[in-house]
Structure formats: structure tokens, C-alpha cells
Amino acid sequence: MSSDQAVVADPPAFPMDRGCPYHPPAGYAELRQDGPVTRAKLFDGREVWVVTGYEEARRLLVDPRLSSDRSRPDFPVLVPRMAAAKLVALVGMDPPEHDIQRRMLIGNFTVRRANALRPDIERIVGERIDAVLAHGPDAAVDLVPEFALPIPSTVICELLGVPYDDHEFFEEQTRLMVIATSTAEQAAAASRALVGYFDELITRKQASPGQGLLDELIRERLETGQLSREDLATIAMFLLVAGHETTANMLALSVLALLEHPEQQARLVADPAGRAPGATEELLRFLSVADEIQRIAADDIEVGGVVIRSGEGVYLPTAAANRTAATFPDPDVLDIGRVPRGHLAFGYGIHQCIGQNLARVELEIGLRELFRRIPTLRLAEPLATLGAKPGGSVQGVYRLPVTW
Predict the structure, then answer these.
(1) For the chain, what is the radius of gyration of the CA atoms?
(2) What's the rounded Cα separation, in Å, for the pair 196 and 237?
(3) What distances in angstroms separate CA 256 from CA 135, 174, 196, 326, 375, one per listed residue?
(4) SS3 state at 142
(5) Concatenated DSSP letters of 280-331
(6) Which helix (H) or strand (E) holds 31?
(7) Are strands 66-67 and 301-303 parallel, antiparallel or unpaired?
(8) Opening angle at CA 30, ends 28 and 34, nearest 5
């Protein structure tokens, strides 16, 4: 089938909102009925390809004919704020520039490095659970600001060498950059504010060096001329934003999903240490919070019975791929005993999330310790009152009130 033949009369709007925070939008199933690769329409009227099939997504994610270059003027954006706050570092680059930056950073995000951070992460998680318990069982505690957000925020600050005292500032700027409801002006201003913050922090660190990754990059890359000051500030901003926003949403949504599936919660409570690693992988598949991966075709590509033409936009929603029944039997069932090998929650190929090992450790320890220490945890409000973040954002909830 040609791309012309595959165009439907009235393509659905994209991105799509979730009705339930932990399930994909209902529209994904409707898209899938038209084939694993079909058309949708963005806010500006542009039509793009949406890939809902697992095998097709996996194939395309390693196809060099799909470009990640967000500096291209024709690169497709889901919502207006994306055009103003483009995170060009790493995820928004093609080789060879992408490969150069990734090699600079990858040694700090290996499995070995993530495991070496376990004692520090266990300390941070323990302190946050202490703070939750200090409220007492009769109070409704919001786990987003008390648990889910501060854990990855503290971890990435310690890794980078960023003062955690500044967390309210950078968390607010991050929110303005990534939430779909921000205007282009708000997102652009937030991006400038964060780059300016890191430019100033680089100056302070040059005068008084520390031990974080940012200090290492200043010493080994900036002062040797391998990185410009602007590029270093942009990379640092990317690591800070990506290092806490996605994991924070994943932690909150994981807790919510478990509380809404009491039989799975009971399995984790019965064996927190043994079940937490597997539960983490299944929840990554089941929730797929970093849902929309975007690309643009640099050449014609035939896939899934259609031809994607050069210059056409492509979206690969991981929540659709990770709910493909042929790859994951009973995909809409949460089963923490499942071994969901090959899920695409962190993407695939050269752009696979550089921080995935760190995120896994944070999620595993956070879930293990929370349900070990507070086994009777339960929602303090009905699920319907929580809502879900809009499509075009990292998926999650704004609030997670609990009691025990």
C-alpha cells in the first residue's frame, strides 16, 4: 500500500489524552485497527504517521533514515511548547554529534555506576519515607511532593553536583518546559532560565570546583575546548530535566497502579526484595510514561504496509507498542510476575535512554522500601479525582493522596 492510499479521510487528532492515568488513550486501539502504521493530525494541521505496532516501532527506532534532529525547521512537534523548548542535546541530535555527546556521558550511567549509587539512593528513599510517616496514618499525604518528586530530584542533583537548595526553581522551570498546557512563550522562558542558571553555576564551579559530573565536564571537556560553554549548559539542563521528571512521574504512577491492583500490591508486600526488580520492569512496560518518541523521515521508508515519504513526521507512542498482544500476551493486564523482555519504555537503538540504569535502581528501591515499610498504603481519594496529565507531556498524575 502506498502512503497516498493509506491516508484516511479524517485523521484523528494527536496527541491523545489518557482517560485512566495508567492506561493508554482509548484512541490507540482505534488507530491499531487501521494497521500498525497509520495517520494522525497535529495541532497545527500537519499530518504525521503514528506507529502502534511493536515490531514496526522496534524496526524504525534503529533505522538511520529516521532523523532525531530537532533543529530542523520541519521537525514535527506535538504541542506548541515543544517548538519553543527543544531539548536538542542527545535526544534531539543525529550521529555523529549525538555519538560524541553520548560517549562523554555514558560512563556515568552504566549498570555498575548505578549499582554503586544504591547506598545513597537507599538513604534518600529512607529519608523520604520517614517524612511521609511523620505525618501520621490519619493524615492524607500527597506522595508526589513528599516522595515521588524529591527522590529523583535529589539523586540527579548529587550526581551532577547541583545544589538541591535550588530544587524549587528548577522543578518549576522543568514543569513549564514539559507540560503540554504550557504556552510556547512560557516554555521558551523556562528553557532560557535553566540555561542561564547552569551558565552561572559553571562560573561558580570554575572558581570553586566540586566532585559532581558537571565539575568533571568542566574540567575535562570545557576547559580543554571540547565543549563550548553554551553546549555544556544545554547538556546539563537536559540531564537535570530528564534525570528527575520522568522518574518522578513513573514512581507516582507505579504506586497508583499497584494501589489500584491490590492483588499485585499484595504480591509485592509479601516479598518486597524479591518482587521489586520484576515489578519495576512490568510497570515500565505497563505505564510507558515517556509515551511519544518523535522522528522525521530523511528518506523514503516502507514499513507496515505503507511508505513513509522523506520529510514526513513519525511518532512512535511507546504505550501502544508495549501493549501489543502479539509481543506481550494479555497486554492490558498488570502482572508483576511477568518478564516483559524487550519493552520499549526507554526507547530502543542509539537513542535509548542514557539514564535507564539509574532510573531502574531508583524505581526498584523506591517501590521496595515504600511497600516494605508501609504495607497498608491505600488511596485517600477516589481515582477519578486525580485526573491524568495531558497527552504531549510525560504521563502521570498531579496528586497522589494516600493514607495507611
Answers:
(1) 21
(2) 10
(3) 19, 23, 36, 27, 14
(4) strand
(5) HHHHHHHH-SS-EEEEEESS-EEETTEEEPTT-EEEEEHHHHTT-TTTSSST
(6) helix 26-33
(7) unpaired
(8) 110
Could you read off the pLDDT of 228-280 as tens digits, one per residue?
999 999 999 999 998 899 999 999 999 999 999 999 999 999 999 999 999 99
- HSE-CB of 15 using CA atoms within 13 angstroms: 31
Is it true that domain 3-403 has CATH number 1.10.630.10? yes
pLDDT band of 2, cuts 50, 70, 90? very low
- Give percent above pLDDT 90 in the chain: 86
Q: Residue 196: which of 233, 165, 163 has the closest Cα?
A: 233
Do the Cβ atoms of 94 and 102 come closer than 8 Å?
Answer: no
378-379, strands of its sheet edge to edge: 141-142, 401-403, 378-379
- The three-point CA angle 357-243-379 to 5° equals 90
| Adjacent-strand bridge partners of 72 | none
The CB density around residue 383, as the number of other CB atoms within 10 Å, is 15
Spatial contact of 212 and 161, defined as CB atoms under 8 Å apart: yes
b/e for 125-137, b at 16 or more Cβ within 10 A?
A: beebbeebeeeee
Residue 67 β-bridge partners = 296
Residue range 331-340, pLDDT digits in tens:
999 999 999 9
Run of H or E including 171: helix 167-178
Output DSSP code: residue 13: B
- 294 and 78 in contact (C-beta within 8 Å)? yes
pTM to 2 decimals?
Answer: 0.94
Residue with cell 517524612: 131
Euclidean distance between CA atoms 122 and 110, whole angstroms: 18
